[in-house]
From TrEMBL:
Pfam families, A to Z: BamE
Keyword Signal: yes
Species this chain originates from: Sinimarinibacterium thermocellulolyticum
Keywords, comma-separated and alphabetical: Membrane, Signal
Keyword Hydrolase among UniProt keywords: no
Gene3D superfamilies: 3.30.1450.10
Protein name: Outer membrane protein assembly factor BamE
Residue ranges of every copy of the Outer membrane protein assembly factor BamE domain listed in the record: 18-77
Amino acid sequence: MIRRIAVSVLALWLVACNRVTPENYEKIESGMSRDEVHALLGKPDEVSGGGVGRMTLMTERWNGREHVISVTFATDKVTLKSIEPRRDE
């Protein structure tokens, strides 16, 4: 029983890691909401930015096994996106 649980957890972890792919990157479109991007890629690994009044500018970053995806949101809508190979330092 414990072995089955461990295998299930490992499988879920591998699926989560595989979300940061060129295929999912291509699904991100200008104007998508943060919730839509989070549904596609999961919770971001890094968040930066800020705002003034109702205007916010946030950049979120997802670190996958092979790629890194960055998405910039203006008032919670996709405005910019980029993908690059992961470079471990």
